[in-house]
Amino acid sequence: MRLTTGIGASYGTSKSGVGIAAMGVLRPDLMMKCIVPVVMAGIIAIYGLVVSVLISGDLKSPMALYTGFIQLGAGLSVGLAGLSAGFAIGIVGDAGVRGVAQQSRVFVGMILILIFACVSSFSADMHGSRAHRIRALCHREVLGLYGLIVALILNTRASDTPGC
Question: How many other CB atoms are found less than 10 A from the CB of residue 126?
Answer without folding.
Answer: 10
